[in-house]
Design goal:
- By secondary structure, the protein is an alpha/beta fold.
- It has a single domain, classed as Ribose 5-phosphate Isomerase B, Chain: A (3-Layer(aba) Sandwich).
- The chain has 7 helices and 5 strands; from the N terminus they run βαβααβαβαβαα.
- It has a 5-stranded parallel sheet, with helices on both faces.
- Helix 5 links the parallel strand 4 and strand 5.
- The longest helix has 13 residues.
- It is globular.
- It starts with a strand and ends with a helix.
C-alpha cells in the first residue's frame, strides 16, 4: 500500500518517526514534505501537493491513503478537504479513527502533533490503515451527497 505523508514544522518530527516505523512494515511511503525542518514553513504548501496525489486514478485503484500532520491537526484537515475526492478527518482516539474510516470513508488522516505522542500516533495510523470502508448504501449515499456540495 502506498501512503502519502506530509507535515509542517510542528509535525515534522512525528512525520519522520512515522515514516521510519511504516517502511519496515512493507508500506511504500511517499514523503510530501517538508523534508527539512523549517520553523517558518506553512502547511498549505505541503498539503496541497499531497492532497492531489492520493486521488490519481492509479493511486486510488491501488488503495493509496494520506496522512497529514500539523500542531493541532485542524489546519491540515481544512486544507486537505479543499480538494475534491479528499475525505480527511482529524484523529483524536482509536474508536473515532475507525468510525471515520468505516462510515465516512476517510482517505486522509490528520494528526495533531502537539496533542499526541508517537505511541498514540502509531495506534491511530495502524487503525486507519487496517480499517476498510463499509460499503453499505447509507454510507455511499452520504459520500455522494458530500460530493455534490459546492463552494458558494
Amino acid at each position: 500500500m502506498k501512503i502519502y505523508i506530509a507535515a509542517d514544522h510542528r509535525g515534522f518530527e512525528l512525520k519522520n518517526k512515522l515514516i521510519s516505523w511504516l517502511k519496515p512494515r512493507g508500506y511504500e511511503v511517499v514523503d510530501g514534505g517538508n523534508t527539512v525542518y523549517d520553523p517558518e514553513d506553512d502547511y498549505p504548501d505541503y498539503i496541497s501537493e499531497l492532497a492531489k496525489r492520493p486521488l490519481s486514478t492509479e493511486a486510488v485503484a491501488k488503495g493509496a491513503l494520506g496522512i497529514v500532520i500539523c500542531g493541532s491537526g485542524v489546519g491540515v484537515s481544512i486544507a486537505a478537504n479543499r480538494f475534491k475526492g479528499v475525505y480527511c478527518a482529524l484523529g483524536f482516539n482509536v474508536e473515532q479513527v475507525k468510525h471515520a474510516r468505516e462510515n465516512d470513508h476517510i482517505n486522509v488522516l490528520a494528526l495533531p502533533a502537539d496533542y499526541l505522542d508517537f505511541e498514540k500516533a502509531k495506534e491511530f495510523v495502524k487503525t486507519f490503515l487496517m480499517t476498510k470502508p463499509i460499503m453499505k448504501e447509507k454510507y455511499l449515499r452520504r459520500i455522494r451527497k458530500i460530493d455534490l456540495i459546492s463552494n458558494y
